[in-house]
Design goal:
The protein is α/β, with parallel strands linked by helices. Helices cover 29% and strands 29% of the residues. The chain has a seven-stranded mixed β-sheet with strand order 1-2-3-4-5-6-7. A hairpin with a 5-residue loop joins strand 24 and strand 25.
Length: 570
């Protein structure tokens, strides 16, 4: 049976504990974290002791389906507690319906969430139990004693974990999740989910590695049998592997030689989305990000992050024609702390005007700072093409920082090993791809046939290439093989630096392949392919692709070969 585009799946996962998985089967890409386009789940949990608690609920698009499913499990009026692991405007529509059906319910949330609810609920005054600073507890009876642990991050300052001592389940909200929609309630296959987990971490957690480390420390002393996140499957079989992965991935971020301070405020989440996408572009290029929400951060933390960073970015919404007070305070700290040699960047979103972005740009320029890119101005919500552009801006910004560092480092001659590696030759090719409004291309020479049946090959893609984000399993692309003696034109074209969002194919003759990706008319031959797998290898991804179509365009031409003198660069 073909699944509906949206439905709610229920299952008992522990004693008196049910999960309700609001499933979005259709591909999603309204934020960079959904770029793999494999759908997602929004998980809610119902615990029934002598009293009943509902942990989290989905957003507005699921309100009716979720309420109907909840009513099949319990009369909503019988709810005693609703626990908010995080809150945003999209989820408030569902919360309002719940409060209407359960007027006597008590909301349990962190202090930042309680403050946000004052505006989001528009004057409504539900009963709220605030979890401040340390831990708090609620006894549901029947052995279910819930402990609450605040886990703030810049993106979710209101973050809250819940631990049930009886079932030993940690309801980890945004932590330890992934975006994929399928029928599997549990994490049965670690390797099959690893790519989704890593991408989720890289998008959401990598810019907050310091806060991730603090959160993981809170797990010490807890006996955890299961993780129940708000997205993806319940983690029952690989809890230790997942914790170790989070620790390893966080440590990788802390060990980077360069870091960027990313300071922002966000009124409706749009500026935060831009910040997150910029961070993804920066971290995939090998530079760490210290993400700072100016609305919650201590001024000393902003100052410390600026002092240790190689560069800084600052983003703001425009509210009533102005930047929020917290951003103006952060800007003052930056102007008094940052070195003029630190590369800067400005971004923001707005509804009708963008004065806050102008303010940031002008103040930094007047202060003698160099902006690494034109200020990013997004009206209302970022589009898919905007997300692609912002990720490329982040990658280019990270590369600029690394270029500055290399220029300061003394040059050393290539070693004998590096010279020997340079003698490995490969055919000159151009990888081209298109997905929706996004398209990209790169020159490639690290290409090798890998299999006879099915016919397949591997190509190495540097992590900081713009095309990397379009080459995940299931993605289509074309490998265009260049002819000897006629390769210099295409080679020079695709070697030149392209600006974020710039059309790689302007002035190049192409035709669409069967898979919709561009085929170069100057190629000796081309192969239409689908990414079957990819493996992380140092500073590159090794992409294994299977071939569906192919054609030789110039039967008498020879393949262009790339010769190098050293293995330290292309």
């Amino acid at each position: 049976m073909t699944p509906q585009s949206r439905d709610v799946q229920t299952l008992t996962i522990a004693a008196d504990t049910e999960v309700m998985r609001s499933r979005s089967w259709e591909r999603l890409r309204f934020e960079i974290e959904y770029a793999l386009e494999r759908g997602t789940t929004s998980n809610s949990y119902l615990i029934r002791g002598d009293r009943t608690a509902l942990l989290d609920f989905p957003g507005q698009s699921f309100t009716d389906r979720f309420i109907t499913t909840l009513a099949q499990q319990i009369d909503p009026a019988a709810l005693d507690y609703i626990v908010l692991g995080h809150i945003n405007p999209n989820r408030v529509a569902t919360l309002k319906v719940l409060l209407d059906k359960a007027p006597d319910v008590t909301l349990v949330c962190s202090n930042p969430a309680a403050k946000a609810l004052e505006d989001l609920l528009e004057g409504a005054s539900p009963k709220i139990q605030v979890v401040k600073g340390g831990e708090a507890e609620i006894d549901l009876g029947q052995g279910h004693r819930l402990r609450f642990l605040p886990v703030p991050t810049p993106r979710w300052p209101e973050g809250l974990w819940t631990y049930d001592e009886y079932t030993q389940v940690l309801f980890s909200n945004k932590f330890l999740g992934l975006h994929r929609c399928d029928n599997a309630v549990y994490d049965l296959n670690w390797s099959a989910l690893l790519e989704d987990r890593r991408y989720y971490f890289d998008c959401l957690m990598a810019p907050n590695s310091r806060q991730v480390g603090v959160a993981l420390e809170k797990l010490r002393g807890l006996n955890i049998r299961m993780f129940a996140p708000v997205h993806g499957p319940v983690v029952r079989y690989h809890t230790h592997e997942l914790l170790q992965a989070y620790q390893d991935w966080s440590q990788q971020q802390k060990g980077k030689a360069l870091s960027v301070a990313l300071v922002y405020a966000s009124a409706y989440g749009n500026t935060a989305t831009i910040a997150q996408t910029l961070a993804r572009g920066i971290t995939k290029a090998g530079v760490a990000v210290e993400s700072i929400n100016a609305e919650q951060a201590d001024p000393d933390d902003i100052k410390a992050a600026i002092e240790k960073s190689a560069g800084f970015l600052i983003g703001s919404p425009t509210l009533g024609g102005h930047a929020p007070t917290q951003i103006q305070t952060a800007l003052g700290i930056i102007l008094s702390t940052a070195s003029k040699t630190q590369l800067a960047g400005v971004f923001g979103s707005f509804g009708w005007s963008g004065e806050a972005i102008d303010l940031l740009e002008n103040k930094l320029k007047d202060g003698g700072y160099s902006l690494a890119f034109d200020p990013i101005r997004v009206k209302f919500k970022p589009t898919e093409s905007t997300l692609q552009y912002c990720e490329e801006v982040g990658t280019d910004y990270a590369q600029a920082l690394k270029k500055v560092k290399r220029a300061k480092a003394p040059r050393t001659p290539a070693t004998s090993v590096e010279q020997a590696v340079g003698r490995i030759v490969g055919s000159l090719c151009v990888v081209t791809t298109r997905k929706g409004d996004a398209s990209s291309a790169m020159l490639a020479s690290w290409v090798s046939q890998a299999t006879f049946a099915p016919p397949g090959f591997t190509v190495a893609v540097a992590k900081d290439r713009a095309i990397e984000s379009l080459l995940y399993p299931g993605s289509d692309f074309v490998l265009n093989i260049l002819p000897e003696g006629q390769h210099l034109g295409p080679m020079k074209h695709f070697l030149k630096p392209f600006g974020p969002g710039e059309d790689r194919f302007e002035g190049v003759e192409t035709k669409p392949g069967e898979n919709g990706c561009p085929v170069l008319q100057d190629a000796i031959a081309y192969l239409e392919c689908e990414v079957a797998n990819r493996m992380e290898c140092g500073d590159h991804w090794i992409v294994y692709a299977t071939i569906s179509e192919g054609e030789v365009l110039l039967p008498d031409a020879k393949t262009a070969v790339h010769h190098r003198k050293t293995g330290t660069h292309y």
